[in-house]
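sorry for the late reply, my laptop died twice this morning and i had to redo everyting from scratch. anyway the thing you sent over, i finally got around to it. pasting the sequence first so we're on the same page, its 254 residues, then the predicted structure underneath. double check i copied it right bc i was rushing
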Amino acid sequence: MPATYASPAAEKARADHEILNAFYGPVPKAPRRTPMRELISTVLSHRTTHADEELAYDRMLAAFGDWPGVLAAPTAALAQAIRTTRWPDTQAPRIQEILRRIAAETGGAFELDFLAEWPLDRAMTWLIDMPGIGLKTASLLLLFNFRKPVLPVDAHVHRVAQRVGFLGPKVSVEKAHAVLPPLLPADAEALFNFHKHNYWHGQQICFFQRPNCPRCPLKGFCNYYQEHYGAATAEVLAATPAQWDPAAWGQLPH
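ok and here's the structure:
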């Protein structure tokens, strides 16, 4: 039976996963960036556009050459190099402290491959103990690069989950990292696709303001749709696109 507006949270979450998997298509498993780049870039990305994050990262390595150079750089000079981020004076010392801890853990190597061998709880605890690294950043790294079964929850994933109705209206982004995974298969590939698809959905359809509900394939059980438009009729559901159309709507981001 398909999910309905009255379905329990776990049923809605799994229906969301299945429908968006068909709508956007399965995502390739390859990590988008190396572990070190994923970690440092995600730190730089806080409240910053992707373009400005990339510019800060490129300027940082152009100025100081490599990770030992970034660690040894005057903190003020590093802040100047990453000035396109939202808080460069805060992020510069954080990045240097993160690099110090990585070097201490690895005996001077600036790599994170050891996390692949660590149990999930140990890896998560070690990461979030570092300055500027919260649950979302740690989860992104462990899921994207090491295929650990964790779910990163950003503002887009959080918004879609609350509007559809499988996350309570008072559950924060931080708490959602513990609430959502039990509703889904405990499988890294499924969690990766759930994250990417709901992230895209929040970017492309379920906007913060004026969501594009007519295009949304979740309207048959989405609380927000029912509250604003009433229950979706069979005719409305039949007219809803079954797949993302890149020719008409544009290519999805990476």
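The CA atoms of residues 64 and 70 lie 5 Å apart.
thats about all i looked at so far, will dig more tmrw
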